[in-house]
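batch_manifest entry 22 of 60
target: Alpha/beta fold hydrolase
source organism: Streptomyces nondiastaticus
requested by: lab member K.T.
priority: normal
notes from requester: please return tokens only, no post-processing; we will run our own comparison against the previous entry in this batch. if the run fails, retry once and flag.
--- input ---
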Amino acid sequence: MEIKHITVNGLDLAYIEQGEGPLALLLHGFPETPGVFRHLMPELAKAGYHVVAPYMRGFAPSQVPPDGSMLMKDLIADANALHDALGGGGDAIIVGHDWGGFATWGAAALAPERWSKVVVADVPPVRFYERRAAVPEQIHKNSHFYFFQMAIADQLVPANDFAYIDWLWDHWSGDIPGFDSTQDREEGKDALREPANLRAGLGLYRQNFPSEVFGTDAWEMGRLLAELPTQPTLYLHGSEDPVVNEEILADIVAALPKGSDGALLQGVGHFPMVEAPEEVNKRILAFLGE
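--- output ---
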């Protein structure tokens, strides 16, 4: 698929696209690229959407921001600026996974006039993270949050052809027979191979989860994402990604506006768009068609 470029917020962002119609903006996370949406994009295009999946700022071939900012406020600003630059209207939809999910929560809440429906996968609203924050299994699953704060991560993460990223995929994925993440791992590594790109990727954690204030009232990202969208929202989460269980999922859906829905995808890990694409696509298309 051809990689195109667009300038928003003074940055050159690369993107791929399919289809024509209302804008469908798909936002990826770490350590991913828009390739994680390869199964969803053609289905949304067939459903009549102009589907655009940008490479996040700092992830090659998008530009590394000159000021180095990977702050959530700038990720949100990129999403909403892309809406304008791509000719999006009030019927646009936004879909996000992982860090793209965080940005989606914020973009939808801050600019509800831009996005008619919202889909987020595997990053619940921040208010729900504290529910399992003290569970040892969850602390272990989130160990990368703490490791990435260390300067030595710049040397250790790319060692042995980014063996740590291979480990993350194994650590976060469910046990899906026949699922092969090789393409996703390699594309994610390629987006971070240059030291500047890797610093940007690690900057997501260092800048948005600073050790001095993370979890306190002074935590900027927590304040920024405190409000939920007012639009109908679909929240999807893999059952093997333990930050959310059935009880928490029910509470998330109850906190979202009328017309919202959610699902805990059984046997699926942190990457549902590629681990269980048929189920994910079916649920998203049914939600958009309602």
